Amino acid sequence: MNYVVMDLEWNQPADGIKTENRELPFEIVEVGAILLNEERKIIGEFTQIVKPTVYNEMNEITRNLIHLRMKELKQGKTFPDTIKEFFEWCGDDYIFCTWGSLDLVELQRNMKYHGLEPLDYRPFPYLDIQKLFSIAFEEDRKERRSLEYAVEYLNIPRDIPFHRAFSDAYYTAKVMAEITQEDVFDNYSYDTYHIPKRREDEVNVLFHDYAKYISRGFADKTAAMQDREVTSTRCYICKKNARRRTNWFSVSGKHFYSVSQCEKHGYMKGKIRLKKSEEGKIFVVKTQKFINEEQVLEIEAKKAALREQRKSKRVLRKKN
Ligand SMILES: [Zn+2]
User: 83: part of which helix (H) or strand (E)?
Assistant: First the structure.
């Protein structure tokens, strides 16, 4: 399988929100990509300026960032022609690699706007190199850094200017070349521009130390949290029901936590994140992970603190 390392530049309304086309807040004006083979060696390059059809004036911030003038954009190819050429260039067997998750969202939004066939009808895996950089080089494995930071951190020669689609794809590929622990590349992400439509299409994947589930869409949060599959705490190794030790609770209303115990495999932490899909439905990303006793106590302490906090709020309200 090859890697398509892609970066996009986009323009937005020149006068801010006033003339925004709500179906297309960001119009892609440049596509850049590097093709890597299985050994992550460069085997191809793609760069194309896209002729805009929605925003015919350059937003100042965008212009200062990407240094492209409208005159140059007008010389570009149309978006549908660019995309057709781009996918022919990508070939059949590849995975997308991007810095962060935004490029794939904007790519799909622009494709939808132009009435093109979707990339996929359900979530698909890709590699978020911003995330992989963090896993490989940050102590907490969570901090998200800019591409410029990563390039500087890794002493990669800055031989071309940043913030053009091709150069950012190029630097992203250079960062990938510096990640030498092969298992870092097992940490793929899922694009959720199209969420699962039916229960049969829901995503269940196993990573080496956790499991991930992506649900179909629900009308609202309550409906999502009433779904048995969403709140299930089956052990992802032996598939047996794990006894709930701490029932689902939430600190923020967006994230829920639980602790259950599999007789054979031990304590398992569940985390539910409620998200809103492109079409406005609520869907759930659930992760399950085995934890030790100390971590169980931490979660339980969090729940207890929350209970105390709510109790004292109630007392205050009564007093007033
Ligand atoms: Zn088990």
Answer: helix 79-90
2-186: CATH, from 3.30.420.10, 3.40.1350.10, 3.40.50.800, 2.70.40.10: 3.30.420.10
Is the per-residue pLDDT at 148 higher than 90? Answer: yes
**What distance in Å separates the CA atoms of residue 46 and residue 296, rounded to the nearest whole number?**
49
Calculate how far, in angstroms, residue 242's C-alpha sits from the geometric centre of ligand 1.
Answer: 7
- Stretch 147-167: mean pLDDT: 92
Mean of the per-residue pLDDT values of the chain = 94
Domain spans in the chain, listed from the N-terminal domain onward: 2-186, 197-313
Dihedral in degrees, nearest 10, Cα atoms 241, 243, 245, 249: 30
Buried b (16+ CB within 10 A) or exposed e, 180-213: eeeebbebbbbbbbbbbeeeeebbeeeeeeebbb
SS (HEC) of 26-69: CEEEEEEEEEECCCCCEEEEEEEEECCCCCCCCCHHHHHHHCCC
Expressed in angstroms and rounded, the spacing between residue 260 Cα and the centre of ligand 1 is 10
Q: Check whether 196 has a pLDDT greater than 90.
A: yes
Distance of alpha carbon 131 from alpha carbon 145, whole angstroms: 9
**132 alpha carbon – ligand 1 mean position (Å):** 29
What spacing in Å lies between the alpha carbon of 240 and ligand 1's midpoint?
6
Q: What is the pLDDT of residues 275-295, one digit of tens each?
A: 999 999 999 999 999 999 999
